[in-house]
Amino acid sequence: MEREAGPIVHRLARALSTQLIARDLLDRGLADVGHAVAADEQTAGRGRHGRSWLSPTGGLYVTFIVPHDGLIALRAGLATARAVEALSIPVRLKWPNDLIVAERKLGGILIETARDVALVGVGINLEESPIDGATSLRDEGVRGDRDAFVRAIYSELARPQTEDVVLAAYRERCATLGRTVSVDRGQGRVMLGRAVDVDPFGHLVVETVDGRVTVASGDCVHLREVWPTSQGTVSHLRPFA
Ligand code: BTN
Fold first, then answer.
1. Residues 20 and 37 in one domain
2. Around 9, how many Cα atoms within 13 Å sit in the side-chain half-sphere?
3. Residue 204's beta-bridge partner residues?
4. If you take atom 2 of ligand 1, which residue's CA is the nearest one?
5. What does 26-86 look like in DSSP terms, one character per residue?
6. Nearest to 146 by CA among 221, 62, 231, 240
7. Residues lining ligand 1, CB < 6 A?
């Protein structure tokens, strides 16, 4: 039987951030597409929008070096969701690629570019759920094997799939569609509306009181309820915990 090719994994007991290590190895010609950097713990783990990512021992912290592609944010979310689904966990994706189980965050993905490649950083809470409102595989009653996750996510990322197939599979798993959301696009630009589509570029389409807006990137929050006011605007919105 032919063995499925996995990534070449650079494994560390401790790193500031696997994103930084991957970039450094790439710059020095010591890593390339098909490599991954994994750490048992991170002391300066990085999240999206400049946040930090708490990374105690026992979680999954890995950066994959992959070819860049316009739908990489969706492909990465999909690949990771599929690896989690294989454990019979009802995971869904909050746009663009947060892994959530019943509105609790199980994992996140940070995508950065370096030269012509993408650094896909995946963090999954396997044991602890380090912040309130998060969950972990253990909280969901499942044990996750870190090496198996690395192989499973990589093999999904490396699998050639057309954009149409990626979009269809992504939309099926996207918990944001149909939801009332607030999206913070930075520099004080926050909008409210209903998420109605993910377009062929992976952008979120939001129906607002001023019409449809397409968002390429932003921090999306699912809101618990929406109360229309007489002015047609919305009030009393509560995010999930
Ligand atoms: C998010 O904010 O949801 C994204 C979190 C991404 C965390 C992962 S852990 C592996 C890689 N290294 C980092 O420093 N961040 C990413």
1. yes
2. 18
3. 198, 215
4. 47
5. HHTTS--TTEEEEEEEESS-B-GGG-B----TTSEEEEEEEE--TTHHHHHHHHHHHHHHT
6. 62
7. 17-19, 42, 45-48, 51, 53, 61-63, 98, 108-110, 121-123
C-alpha 109 to ligand 1 mean position (Å): 5
Residues β-bridged to residue 221: 182
Residue with tokens 């993408």: 118
What pLDDT sits at residue 235?
Answer: 47
Of the candidates 173, 197, 226, which is a domain's last residue?
A: 173
One domain, residues 20 and 137: yes
User: Are residues 132 and 32 part of one domain?
Assistant: yes
Question: Tokens at residue 190, please?
Answer: 């926050």
Q: What is the pLDDT of residues 206-222, one digit of tens each?
A: 999 999 999 999 999 99
Residues in the chain: 241
Beta carbons of 178 and 195 less than 8 angstroms apart: yes
Taking the centre of ligand 1 as the mean of its atom positions, its distance from the CA of residue 206, in whole angstroms, is: 26
For 217, the domain range is 180-239
- 169 and 184 fall within a common domain: no
Instruction: pLDDT band for 4, please (50, 70, 90 cuts).
Output: low
Domain total for the chain? Answer: 2
**Do residues 143 and 199 both lie within one domain?**
no
Please give the share of the chain, as a percent, with pLDDT higher than 90. Answer: 87
Nearest CA-CA partner of 63 in 123, 127, 115:
123
In whole numbers, what is the pLDDT of the chain averaged over residues? 92
**238, pLDDT greater than 60:** no
Q: Kindly state the average pLDDT of the residues 108-122.
A: 96
pLDDT digits (tens, 9 = 90+) for 59-75: 999 999 999 999 999 99
